[in-house]
Amino acid sequence: MTPELDPVIHAQARLRVVVTLNTLNEGDRITFPGLKDLLGMTAGNLSVHLTKLEEAGYVEIVKAHKGRTPVTYAALTRRGRLAFEDYTAAIRQLLNTTMTPPSGDS
């Protein structure tokens, strides 16, 4: 049976976002401009993908102020980390299935 891949994470740009946020320690967060620069994405494109991940409960967006300057932070939620673990397990299973010859073949 072929494993199901989470369509929210599977989109290339969102996968890049989740992989990057997953490198942070649990509870840590990154500023929106920092994430944008790391990923080489436009602000609009990143915003769209973060919104989709936030709607799924995978990402938490926090808007704050540093002095008088507004700042937006992004972090992977516990649910997001678990979804990413499930996603990577499904990818590994899929790869193992496709690399193992069917039984009975030589």
TrEMBL record:
Q: Name one GO molecular function term.
A: DNA binding
| Keywords on record | DNA-binding
Q: Where is the Winged helix DNA-binding domain?
A: 21-95
Which Pfam families does the record associate with it? HTH_34 (PF13601)
Give coiled-coil spans as residue ranges.
Answer: none
Q: Which SUPFAM superfamilies does the entry mention?
A: Winged helix' DNA-binding domain
Asked if Transcription is a keyword of the record, the answer is: no
The name this protein carries in UniProt is: DNA-binding MarR family transcriptional regulator
